[in-house]
Design brief:
Elements: E1 4-17, E2 20-26, E3 39-42, E4 54-57, E5 60-62, E6 67-73, H1 77-82, E7 90-97, E8 110-116, H2 121-133, E9 136-143, H3 152-156, E10 161-165, E11 172-173, H4 181-184, E12 189-193, H5 196-209, E13 213-216, E14 232-235, E15 238-241, H6 242-245, E16 248-250
C-alpha cells in the first residue's frame, strides 16, 4: 500500500479522559485509503527531548468529513506535547503504515474485538468496517475503572459492547478474560489490542477454544519502515519488524508461551 508524508490540519481536539487526547485531522485533498489496524508515525514539534516520530494507531476514519482520528495516551514528553495542539495547527504524518486486521472471512461471522486501555483505539474503525462488510462485531473492552472506558458511545453505535473494570465500577468486575460472555457465546474469530499480559491471556483463551485469533502488538516503532530494528519480534518464522510485518499477527505465528 502506498505511503504518504503529509502535513495534516488539526480540525478538532478533545479530551475524553484526563490522560487521553483525541485529535481529528483533515486535509485539502482526499485522505488515502487506510486499513483498520494500521498506524501513523507522527512528527512531534516543540518537544526538545523528542527526536523520533511517535507511532499512533488509526482510531477512526470519517470519510464523509475527510477526517483521520488519533486517540493518544499522554504518557511522555512527546505525547504530552501532542496534547497541546489546537484547531488550525498542522501535524506531519507518515502513513498509513503496517499490516492491519483481517477483513471479513465469511458473511455474517461473529468477531469478538477485545481491547484494553488505549488498545481500544484501532478497534473502533475495525468494528465499523466489519459491520459494513456484513460481519457481526462484538466489543469486549476492559479498564481499571469506569472513567477509563474510552469512546463507549461510539462503540455502542456500531455493535454490542461488553465491559469489565478491575474495581467493578462498570460492567463485570475483573479482567476481560473473566467476562461471562466468553463461556456463553460462540465467536468465529477474535482480534485483540492492549497490554501484552491481556493479549497473552486472550490468546490462551483462543487456543483453548480453538478460535482463530490475531493480536496487534505495541512494540516501540521509531521509524515505521523497518530500518531502525527497534520493534523486532521473535516469531516462528524468525525475527521480524513489527512495523512492517505487523503490527497485527496471528497468534500461531508468535512464540508466546500460552
Amino acid at each position: 500500500m502506498q505511503k504518504f508524508l503529509r502535513d495534516l490540519t488539526v480540525s478538532e481536539v478533545s479530551f475524553p479522559h484526563k490522560r487521553y487526547v483525541l485529535i481529528k485531522l483533515t486535509d485539502t485533498q482526499p485522505l488515502p485509503p487506510m486499513l483498520p489496524g494500521q498506524f501513523v508515525e507522527v512528527k512531534v514539534e516543540g518537544s526538545p527531548s523528542t527526536f523520533l516520530r511517535r507511532p499512533i494507531s488509526i482510531n477512526y476514519v470519517d470519510t464523509a468529513a475527510n477526517q483521520l482520528w488519533l486517540l493518544i495516551a499522554m504518557v511522555g514528553a512527546g505525547t504530552r506535547t501532542l496534547g497541546t495542539l489546537k484547531a488550525g495547527d498542522h501535524l506531519n504524518l507518515l502513513f498509513p503504515l503496517g499490516n492491519g486486521f483481517s477483513p471479513m472471512q465469511q458473511q455474517g461471522e461473529t468477531v469478538l474485538l477485545v481491547g484494553g486501555g488505549v488498545g481500544v483505539a484501532p478497534l473502533l474503525q475495525y468494528g465499523k468496517v466489519l459491520k459494513q462488510q456484513g460481519a457481526q462485531p462484538i466489543f469486549l473492552l476492559g479498564s481499571r475503572t469506569a472513567e477509563d472506558l474510552l469512546q463507549l458511545d461510539l462503540f455502542q453505535a456500531i455493535a454490542p459492547v461488553y465491559t469489565t473494570t478491575e474495581d467493578g465500577s462498570a460492567g463485570e468486575k475483573g479482567f476481560v478474560t473473566q467476562h461471562s460472555i466468553l463461556s456463553t457465546m460462540h465467536f468465529d474469530r477474535i482480534s485483540c489490542c492492549g497490554p501484552k499480559p491481556m493479549m497473552v491471556s486472550v490468546a490462551r483463551y483462543a487456543k483453548q477454544t480453538n478460535t482463530p485469533c490475531e493480536v496487534s502488538l505495541e512494540n516501540m516503532m521509531a521509524c515505521g519502515l523497518g530500518a531502525c530494528l527497534c520493534c523486532v519480534e521473535k516469531t516462528v518464522k524468525g525475527n521480524v519488524c513489527v512495523c512492517t510485518e505487523g503490527p497485527v499477527f496471528n497468534i500461531n505465528d508468535l512464540t508466546w508461551e500460552i
